[in-house]
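User: I'm curious whether this sequence folds into something compact or stays loose and floppy. Could you predict its structure so I can see for myself?
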Amino acid sequence: MAIRAYDHQADFEVVGDFLVDIHRPGHGLRTWLQPRWEYMHYHSLSDGLPFERFGIAEDGHGMVGLIHFEHNPGFNYLQVRPGCEGVVEGLLDWAEAHLGGRSITFGRRVIGLFVDDTDSLLEESVNQRGFVLHAEHTEEHARYVVDGPVDSARLPQGFRLLSLDEHNDFEKINRVLWRGFNHEGPPPSEEIPARKRAQLAPNFRRDLTIVAVAPNGDYASFAGMWRVKDRAVAYVEPVATDPTYRRMGLARAAVLESIRRVAAEGVRDVWVGSDQEFYLTMGFEIETRTRLWVKPLD
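Assistant: Here's the prediction. I'll summarize afterward.
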């Protein structure tokens, strides 16, 4: 087994295929789904980040593990092929050598790792290395199981649902995402190239991305949906509603419509990285929780 640095040009799709291959339906979500990896790279928060610090583990048959951050260098994630847990210690060594960073939260240089609550062996390993659990920093994933017709939500009078295949206005996308994620001030036009880049992701599908359109033509709510290629699995990302149009059931309607569309293609598991009541009342159930373990480096 050897560990080497990630090369984005050569490895981006290889890692994506690896994540598709190692996902085991019915066994929680210890590893990332491929759409999260893809969405991360096509998000503007990735600009200038040192992806070359990621570590890839390989044996004689190919890739068996990966350690990497998302948009916050220093806080990391471990992806390991089931049955190849022997690579974990080597990847943790790589992380301590290459993937630490200065944290505003902790006020010093640290190395952090998100560990699934059910992974007692990894918890024991990081504990022995001097990592300390910070249980206030968690990530949850919830699953919607498609086991029958998907509910629909009634829209207020004058509103309608469209896919970006039917109407794709980048200024309106910029506005709903800017305001929907609670940024102050008018949406800057400088963000529009990032909105366009997001749609260049290899597996982005306009027909699965739903907007709720207001009577005046505004995009009032936005729901992204990513189908995991060759699998009956999908991933919700992102979802946002303009504050002017909140508490009208628009996001619920948009998400359910996107679920209905992937369900028609045979998808049975739909995941979202959230524990918000909004998703739970829709039928999602929390299945996995990861917590942050941190080790000081100075």
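Summary: The mean pLDDT is 96. Helices lie at 8-22, 34-41, 88-98, 120-128, 170-180, 192-198, 250-263, 277-280.
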